[in-house]
Every structure is written in C-alpha cells, then in structure tokens.
Amino acid sequence: MRRLRRLWLIIPVILLIAIGGFVVWASTPSGVLMQEAQIALESDDQVQVSRDRWLVFEPAATPPTTGLIYYPGGRVQPEAYAPLAREIAKAGYLVVIVPMPLNLAVLGANRADEVIAAFPEIRAWAISGHSLGGSFAANYAAQHPGKVQGLIIMAAYPQASDSLAARDDLVVMSIYGTLDGLARPDQVEGSRVYLPSDAEFVPLDGGNHAQFGWYGAQAGDNEATITRADQTEQIVNAVLRVLQAITPDSNGS
Question: What is the reported pLDDT for 249?
Fold first, then answer.
C-alpha cells in the first residue's frame, strides 16, 4: 500500500515535469531570426507593416481586395517569414502571418477565422503555411469549405483525414524543395491523392526545408544548392499565380 501511495504521489510530478519540458521545447524557436527578416519588418513607402495580434503586411499605395493567411512552421518565429510576406504585399496583396500557441499550428488551426473576420474588405482569401503550418493550412481549407478560395502548401502535405480530392472550389498549389530533408519530395508527391486533380505541384530545384523562411539551418535538413534569396523569389512567383487566379475582377465576379 505504501508503494502504491508513493506511486500516486510520483505520477503527478512526472506529468508536471513532462508538460513543463514540452512547453519549454515548443516555446523555444528553432534557429535564429536572420537580419533580412528583421529588415523586412520595417514599414516603407511600398509596404506598411503592423505588429499587434498578427504580423500584417499591406501594400501602401492601393487597398488590396485579395489576402493571404500564413501559418508558420513548427517552432519557427512568425517574423522569419517577413521577407516572403513583404514581397507578396509589394505585388498588391494583404498578407497576415498568424502566430500560434507555443509556436505550433496544431494548437491554433482555426485562427484564420479571426483574420477573415477582421478584414471584411478582402473579397478573396488564400491560406498557406510552411511545414506543420502547411499541413494545418490544408486542414483549415478542408474543414471550412467556402472560407478560402486558394490553398498553398509549402514543404508539407495534407493528412488523409483532410482530403481535398473532391473539391472543385479551390485553387491548390504545393511547393517543395527537391533537397528537403524533412518534408521529402516523395512524401509531398505522394499527397497528390489527397488534392484536386488540377492541383499544381511546384518543385524548387536545389531548395530545402529551412529556406522557406529566414531562420537559419534546421536539424535533419539537407544543404540547399540555391540561395535563400533565390528560393524566396521562386516561392513568391508561385504564390502570386494563385493569388492572381482567385482575385475578383473589376466587374465584381
């Protein structure tokens, strides 16, 4: 009986230690925010940047009608995607990077709802994300039909339970690096069965996992053979194709 009582006393302690360790691990960002990301967070005459609930990048000249919601990768600082967001905003689109609880999109998969409600002037939305964020961007699109018109998955793939294969109301793109050591090309290509038949797959030749953001190297990844700036430029060009495809025309359709 004494041993049993001791066991019941020890179990809560073990659980508390395990939970505390998980919180510390999840709250500690992977990599270090690079200088290019810090610079991209500054407003100028082309892009206005605000940092309140979210990181918001808005073209300074013309009010946008199409927006992109972005879910960061697991344990990656939202600011690491600032260079990507700035370039997209420069092209005339609203971009909202959504911080996640404990830096894990699995804990905030429905946060896009709040973004959409906060910007009623946006007439068309796409949702995107990197790695874990990409998987849960796909989850949001699957679980909320009609909320977004575009889905861009980066270095990730949807789960079978979030299959979008039967959906004909989405413009879907999957972008991946051919040297990605975490979301391997064969895994990404294998997700075709869960996406619409007209989904576009965009391989970045020589790209890897960590270069989807600006936070340095990542354990388990392969070394890229293209620069981070080159990979970002290719990603931006691909994303713009989706945003252009879903942007309402001047007649309001």
Answer: 80
Residue 57's pLDDT is 98
The pLDDT value recorded for residue 23 is 40
Q: What is the pLDDT of residue 28?
A: 52
Beta bridge partners of 51: 55
Residue 53: give its domain's CATH number.
3.40.50.1820
d(CA 190, CA 194): 9
Flag whether 60 is in a domain.
Answer: yes
Q: d(Cα 203, Cα 36) in Å, to the nearest integer?
A: 24
Report yes or no: 180 and 203 within 8 Å, Cβ to Cβ. no
Amino acid present at 200: E
Range of the domain at 206: 32-246
The percent of residues in the chain predicted with pLDDT above 90, rounded, is: 84
Residue 105 lies in a domain: yes
Give this prediction's pTM: 0.90
Domain count, the chain: 1
User: For residue 37, which of 175, 179, 216 has the smallest C-alpha distance?
Assistant: 216
Whether 30 shows a pLDDT value over 90: the answer reads no
Decide if 100 is inside a domain: yes
- List of residues 6+ apart from 57 with CB closer than 8 A: 47, 48, 49, 82, 85, 86, 88, 89, 94, 95, 96, 97
CA dihedral 10, 11, 17, 19 (to 10 degrees): -170
